Amino acid sequence: MYITSLDKAEKSIPTMPGATGVTKQVPISAGDGAPNYCFRVFTIEPGGNTPFHSHPFEHLNYVISGQGLLVGENDEHAIGKGDFCLVLPGEKHQYKNPQGNLEALAVICAVPVNYE
Amino acid sequence: MYITSLDKAEKSIPTMPGATGVTKQVPISAGDGAPNYCFRVFTIEPGGNTPFHSHPFEHLNYVISGQGLLVGENDEHAIGKGDFCLVLPGEKHQYKNPQGNLEALAVICAVPVNYE
Fold it and tell me: I need a surface site. Which of A24, B13, B40, B96 has the fewest CB within 10 A?
């Protein structure tokens, strides 16, 4: 049994091309004993975004705070605090916090631990 | 790509012995296409609790709102909005919202889809 919060989770800056204004934390990881899935949190500042990309694993999201966009191949969706999102394996996607927003967009992004 | 929120997720009342004052929702389920893991949400009213039990799968939790207790075999932990919890497979556990609290305790409880 393990309890933590974001203020205790180490912050890193994703270096993958196409990521701007993004901070990553992993409050529940394989290192904590999670056998199958982990909880990562991406915090995206106004004007920032994750890469527009796809990969062979899914994302399960919960929006902790802020507002932004989940961009797909042919569409984009407004997302905000309290929303849940599912991105399927192989789907192109990008999380964006538009310039001019006042608050960071913080999103739980749960994935299998081998993609932590 | 699928986006939803709790107000759109069907509510059910868990009937397992030992659950009191608990509502279950499954905003991201196998039925939505989630291949490995699902996001369930349990909302526990003040004075309510989940069963004190164990099972062969883990819980990954995020506390959406409220305050309460995560009870283990030999200890209990205060939990509240913003906390993340990991309950390992086989660990006895119970989520409680003590009588006298003013707000419901709402907790994301992510598990493998075969235990949805």
Answer: B13
Q: Which residues contact B111 (CB under 8 A, 6 or more apart)?
A: B37, B38, B40, B57, B58, B59, B60
Predicted ipTM of the assembly? 0.96
Residue of A3, A37, A85 with shortest CB distance to B77:
A3
* Partner-chain residue, chosen from B58, B72, B79, that has the shortest CB–CB distance to A36: B58
The residue of chain B with its CA nearest to that of A69 is: B3
Please name the residue that has the structure tokens 């062979």.
Answer: A56
pLDDT tens per residue, range A39-94: 999 999 999 999 999 999 999 999 999 999 999 999 999 999 999 999 999 999 99
* Superfamily per CATH, domain A12-115: Jelly Rolls (2.60.120.10)
Phi, psi values for residue B14, rounded to 5°: -60, 135
Report the run of H or E that residue A85 belongs to, with start and end: strand A83-87
In angstroms, what CA-CA distances link B79 with A109, B26, B71, B86, B96?
21, 21, 10, 12, 10
CATH number of B6-115: 2.60.120.10
Contact residues on chain A for B106, CB-CB shorter than 8 A = none
Mutate to test the interface with A, among B32, B55, B58, B60 (most CBs of A within 10 A): B60
CA distance B25 to chain A (A): 12
Q: Is A32 on the interface with B (CB under 8 A)?
A: yes
* Annotated domain spans of chain B: 6-115
Residues of A in contact with B72 (CB under 8 A): 1
